[in-house]
Amino acid sequence: MTTIHEGDMDILLVEDDPSIGGFLQAAMDREPGYRLHWATTLKDAWKAWEKRQIQEGRPFALILLDLGLPDGDGQGLIHRFREHGGEQALIIISHNLGRMMSFAFRC
Fold first, then answer.
1. What's the CA gap between 25 and 17, in Å, rounded?
2. Is the pLDDT of residue 43 over 90?
3. How far apart are CA 3 and CA 32, in angstroms?
4. Which long-range contacts (C-beta less than 8 Å, at least 24 apart) are formed by 43-46?
5. Are 61 and 89 in contact (CB under 8 A)?
């Protein structure tokens, strides 16, 4: 069990691939000071973000976001975060480098 201390960094991972998500979860569990919240769909990611950001007033420090998810495109989620006051740092993760680069140049 990981002990959480004041000042720990909460990270939202939005990733549907269990091998990638599992790897990142295991890596974060080994590092003191980090707590990973893993969502596998846009719907679950929005619920987690909305609960922390809007209801609790404790935004995630960082969001790791896959663009291709089973229930839609991660780009829409970014816009939704921003429309509701989200200013977290975002790191886009994608197996499709071309798509990731295309997205980066549009932002």
1. 12
2. yes
3. 8
4. 43/71, 45/12, 45/14, 45/77, 46/77, 46/80
5. yes
